[in-house]
Amino acid sequence: MLSLAYDPSNLPIGVNESNLVIATWDAKAGIWVNLESTVKPVTHTISAPVPHFSNYAIFAYTRPSAFTVSNLLMTPAEAIVNQPITISAVITNTGDLSGNHTVIFKLDDKPIAMKEITLEGRGKAPVTFTTTTNVTGRYTVAVDDQVGTFLVKILTVIPPATQTTASFTVSALSIIPSKVNAGEKVTVSVVVTNKGGTSGSYAAVMKINGAEEGRKEATIAAGANQEITFSVTKNEAGIYNVVVGESISSFTVEAKTIYDQWFYIIAAIVALSTGIAVFLIVRRWFYRRAVAPSFGNIPASREYVLAYNQGLEHYGRGEYDTAIQEYSKAVNVDPKQISAYVNRGITYFVKGEHEKAIADFTQAIALDPNYVIAFYNRGLVYKTTGQEVEAISDFENVIRLGTNRNLSKKAKKLTDELLQTKK
After folding, report:
1. 353-375: pLDDT as tens digits
2. Residue 257 contacts by C-beta under 8 Å, 6 or more apart in sequence?
3. CA angle at 189 for the pair 183 and 191, rounded to the nearest 5°
4. Contact 168/193 with Cβ under 8 angstroms?
5. CA gap 279, 163 in Å, rounded
6. What distance in Å separates the CA atoms of residue 71 and residue 113, rounded to the nearest whole number?
7. Nearest to 206 by CA among 187, 179, 223, 225
8. Fewest CB atoms less than 10 Å from the CB: which of 45, 309, 363, 366?
9. What domains, with CATH codes, occur in the chain?
10. How far apart are CA 376 and CA 366, in angstroms?
11. What is the pTM of this model?
């Protein structure tokens, strides 16, 4: 290992110390070859592993600052009049020297905002802007050379039709708590409303992972509603999908034993006998850290539920391609449902198809910009692929929204780790 000291006052103006490298002279090729180097700005030293004695020097590259824009996103992609729309993008300095850049946000070719940003060489930073409009239509957004669109429309309220017979709807599906240890009780509740013109009886059927596990009947007067509750206990760890009527949600059961500390020891032992087994274990390890969706009160068709549950079953058997096909069927049946996008994104993540995973999580966020699970899972993909700025941005959204305390804690820990590695 070769370690050299440098004087920061001798560096060219605008050079980021972290971008310094040690290079060795290749006499045969007649060129300097960069080595994998580690810079410690606090002690002003740089080190690199060297294979042999040779001529070595510290290089500071001085390409002028140049800026590019990526990851342009409008949230939400469809809004109603006067609803705030957040425009976000990632600015990257592809040069070696620090520099300033004016980011111009244009709406239908007219500048609506400007932001000044300063970045060190090879640095990245997110920028955001929020706008509203009271005029319906499709708008084109441009941030430098990146272009996107969003749609503004009027919220149409359709009055309910008058019913002369009993007519029931199921809503407000709630699962408390949403995460338990094996053997602990979960309470499932729904609100059944009679929107018809006469009193009637309704049989509420609770299905878990496609199998009926509870049934209760209630007589409800016209125009009234009633809460119906079920109790569930599961002894095996996993994600359980609950369907009552047209409402879908889920809960997670965790094993009581803590085995994460032993994972690396077991994986190392297994690696001595077969690399394939290690690959499968690691793939499941990543999936356990991805978070499956909670579907809340969004109604779904029976065709959607059937395709979605088929996807879960195929995933559980390790049939990832077939699981993706079933989730895609669900998306085609109802493209406004978030759950199939998120689970398909997780499956792509497990298969290593990171761009497709990011696309699915991004679509889920476009459908619901407050959906922290999609932000968290997309952040995991960004972290896995080394896109640290984008990962930090997603984890900070999880913390900012604050709708899931457990995910907020995990996002805070991951953000701290990423910020620590950037120092």
Report:
1. 999 999 999 999 999 999 889 99
2. none
3. 175
4. yes
5. 58
6. 18
7. 187
8. 45
9. 2-59 (no CATH), 67-153 (2.60.40.10), 162-257 (2.60.40.10), 290-423 (1.25.40.10)
10. 14
11. 0.36
